Automatic annotation (TrEMBL):
GO terms for molecular function: ATP binding; RNA binding; tyrosine-tRNA ligase activity. A motif ('HIGH' region) lies at residues 57-66. This is Tyrosine--tRNA ligase. Signal peptide: none annotated. It comes from Polaromonas hydrogenivorans. Its main location: cytoplasm. It is found in: Cytoplasm. GO terms for cellular component: cytosol. NCBIfam families: tyrS. GO terms for biological process: tyrosyl-tRNA aminoacylation. Transmembrane segments: none annotated. Keywords: Aminoacyl-tRNA synthetase, ATP-binding, Cytoplasm, Ligase, Nucleotide-binding, Protein biosynthesis, RNA-binding. PANTHER family: TYROSINE--TRNA LIGASE, TYROSYL-TRNA SYNTHETASE. The gene is tyrS.
C-alpha cells in the first residue's frame, strides 16, 4: 500500500475508533503514527493485527491491577484483531529483573506449570477464550540452543543494556548483576520476532523490554512492533501500586461480597482513574457521570456502579446485586444471610481465644488490638472488655465490617 496515501488520507470512522480505544488510559503509544498506519492497512486488507501480551507466571493469582492490560487486550480483541496471550514459561526460568535491586530467584518448572494454568484460567474471565491465541515462549526459546542464544546476544550491546535504569542503578550501587539477567530482555524481545507482533502491551515498568522487541524485529528484517504501556494501578490505599505484598489488592478470584465492598472503600478521587482503566463504559458515559457528580450527585452512586460492574465481570450480575444488598445490610449493622458456622470448645472461653479459635483473628495479640479499636461485636454489641468470657451457647461474632461467623461454643 502506498505509504503517502496511508499517512495523508483522512482516517475512517473505524480507524479513528480503534485509535481512540488504543489510547484510552494509556501512558505511551510508541510510535503513534506507525500504529495508525498499521490500523489503516488492516482495514484495507482485512488482515487483523497481531497484539501480544506476555506474562510470566510468577504467582498463582491475578489481581485487578493485572487486568488493566487484559482489559485493553479485550477492547482490541472486540475490534477484530488477533490477541496473543503469551505465557513466559521459558523466561520465568530466568526471572524478570525489571524494577529489581537484586537478582530475582527463578521458578521451578513445576511452579511455572501450576501458575500458568491458573493465570490463563483467570485471564479468560477478561479475554474471549474462543478468540485468544495462547502460546508458550518455550516453543521457540528451547530450540534456540547455545548457538542460537549466542547469535541472539550479538544483536545488542552491553552499553545499551546498561542504559536500563535498574541495571544502571544496581551497577552504581555496587550490587551484583548476573549475566543471565541480560538475557531476559533479549528473550522477551525475541518473543516478538517469533510471533511477528504488531503491538505489544505492558506496564510502564516494562518499557525497556518492549522496546527491545522493536529493535530485534528490525535486526531480523521484520516490520517493528508498536508498544503500548499502561499505567500501574494504585491499590485500595490510593498511594502504592496494587500489590499482594502491600495488602492493597482485590484478587479476581475473591468472593463477590468482598470484591464489591473493597471497590467501595477506594477514595472518590481514585475512583475516576479506576473507571478509565477498569470500566468498559465509554469515555463519553464516564464523562457524563463525572459531570453529574460535580453537579451535586452523591459520588457513592458512581462508586456503587463501578463496584457492580467489576463484581459482575468476575462473578455475575446477580452476584453483584446480592453483594450490593449484603453491603447495605452490613452498613445497617445487619448480619449477612450466609455466614460461616464454627464450633469451638472450652467454655467458658475468653473473647480473644474465641476469636483466634474461630479463625476471626490470627493471634491473641491481634484479637486484643481489634477489641481496643472497637472492631469486635458479639450479637451486635461492641466488645470493650478484653477479659470478657463467654459461656456455652451460640453467638454471632463480627470482626470489622466484613468478617462474620456463627460460633457455637461448647
Amino acid at each position: 500500500m502506498n505509504q503517502e496515501l496511508v499517512t495523508n488520507s483522512p482516517l475512517s470512522d473505524r480507524v479513528q475508533t480503534a485509535l481512540a480505544t488504543t489510547l484510552r488510559g494509556c501512558d505511551e503509544l510508541i510510535p503513534q503514527d506507525e500504529w495508525t498506519r498499521k490500523l489503516v492497512r488492516s482495514e484495507a486488507t482485512g488482515v487483523p493485527l497481531r497484539i501480544k501480551l506476555g506474562l510470566d507466571p510468577t504467582a498463582p493469582d491475578i489481581h485487578i491491577g493485572h487486568t488493566v492490560v487484559l482489559n485493553k487486550m479485550r477492547q482490541l480483541q472486540d475490534l477484530g484483531h488477533t490477541v496473543i496471550f503469551l505465557i513466559g514459561d521459558f523466561t520465568s526460568l530466568i526471572g524478570d529483573p525489571s524494577g529489581r535491586n537484586s537478582t530475582r530467584p527463578p521458578l521451578t518448572p513445576e511452579q511455572i506449570k501450576v501458575n500458568a494454568e491458573t493465570y490463563y484460567r483467570q485471564a479468560s474471565l477478561v479475554l474471549d477464550p474462543a478468540k485468544t491465541e495462547i502460546r508458550y515462549n518455550s516453543e521457540w526459546c528451547d530450540p534456540l540452543g547455545a548457538r542460537g542464544m549466542i547469535q541472539l546476544a550479538s544483536r545488542y550491546t552491553v552499553a545499551r543494556m546498561m542504559e536500563r535504569n535498574d541495571f544502571h542503578d544496581r551497577f552504581k550501587a555496587g550490587q551484583s548483576i548476573s549475566v543471565h539477567e541480560f538475557l531476559y530482555p533479549l528473550m522477551q524481545g525475541y518473543d516478538s520476532v517469533a510471533l511477528k507482533s504488531d503491538l505489544e502491551l505492558g506496564g510502564t515498568d516494562q518499557k525497556f523490554n518492549l522496546l527491545m522487541g522493536r529493535h530485534l524485529q528490525q535486526e531480523y528484517g521484520q516490520e517493528p512492533q508498536c508498544i503500548l504501556t499502561m499505567p500501574l494501578l494504585e491499590g485500595l490505599d490510593g498511594i502504592e501500586k496494587m500489590s499482594k505484598s502491600k495488602n492493597n489488592y482485590i484478587g479476581i478470584s475473591e468472593d463477590a461480597n468482598s470484591m464489591f465492598a473493597k471497590v467501595l472503600s477506594i477514595s472518590d478521587v481514585l475512583m475516576w482513574k479506576w473507571y478509565t482503566l477498569l470500566s468498559f463504559q465509554s469515555e463519553a458515559d464516564i464523562a457524563a457521570l463525572k459531570a453529574e457528580i460535580e453537579g451535586g450527585r452523591n459520588p457513592k452512586d458512581a462508586k456503587v456502579a463501578l463496584a457492580k460492574e467489576i463484581t459482575a465481570r468476575f462473578h455475575s450480575a446477580a452476584a453483584a446485586d446480592a453483594a450490593e444488598q449484603d453491603f447495605i445490610n452490613r452498613s445497617k449493622g445487619g448480619v449477612p444471610d450466609e455466614i460461616a458456622e464454627v464450633s469451638v470448645s472450652g467454655a467458658p472461653l475468653g473473647i480473644g481465644a474465641l476469636l483466634k479459635a474461630a479463625g476471626l483473628a490470627p493471634s491473641g495479640s491481634e484479637a486484643s488490638r481489634l477489641i481496643d479499636g472497637g472492631g469486635v461485636r458479639v450479637d451486635s454489641s461492641v466488645v470493650s472488655d478484653k477479659a470478657l468470657k463467654l459461656a456455652a451457647g451460640t453467638y454471632v461474632v463480627q470482626v470489622g465490617k466484613r468478617k462474620f461467623a456463627r460460633v457455637t461454643l461448647a
